[in-house]
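Checklist before submission:
- one chain only
- standard amino acids only
- sequence pasted in full

Submission:
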Amino acid sequence: MSWILLFFAGLFEIGWAIGLKYTDGFTRFVPTVLTVASMIVSLTLLGLALKTLPVGTAYAVWTGIGTVGTALLGIWLLGEPATAIRLGCIALIVCGIMGLKFAA
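Returned file contents:
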């Protein structure tokens, strides 16, 4: 169950990281409220997952999910470059996340 909570915490981290772009410096009300709500949900789920998972593993997986998701959505939604090196580095992060999951 903790891994599921951690996965969703990572998804909400993606939501608030991408949401920050749409808040326009916290000047747009609806994107700001959604971003702050995403932050709260993400941290709450991370905290619940930490009840049974090692903090180093959980934090690394949480940030890894957020990093990969944010980078991919940046490519897809925001037109950021999708170079071979960039995609290769994203793949390395995914391998690291999987390694931590199987090592825990």
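Reviewer check: Residues 68 and 79 are 16 Å apart (CA to CA).
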